[in-house]
Amino acid sequence: MYVYLSSTEMPCRIFDNKMLNNLQKIWKKSLIMLSAGVLLSLFINRNSDKTSDVFFSDMFFISSMIFLISGLTQFVSNTGMFNSLVFGTKTLSRLFKAKLGPSEQIKDEYIEFTESRRKYGDVPQLLIIGAVLMLISVLVTFL
Description:
The protein is an all-alpha fold and 143 residues long.
């Protein structure tokens, strides 16, 4: 999709192929997370006498928290914060089985492990969706 900022300028591309591919990948995940938020809010409010405004506010808030927590967890995973903890847990069983190799081999395995860790590309989209749902929750609360 192209947008012309003025009649003399070159067109600006709003959606590039990378963004469209990310949106195509994330819509299933977003639908699952949104439905989990709706089901969780239905479960929490099943026996309460709340009005529909409070229910919708809770539903948007719970859904936004699911998106934000998922996005922040993936962001932390992308930074490699828990790589040493995961690798240490995986090598712990080898320690008890006495199958550990020399320290150079363990260091090389750790480097390969950190380089092979999956990087999540949908972190900004999850955080943006979570923030939008949070704003909708606040708007429903005050309107």
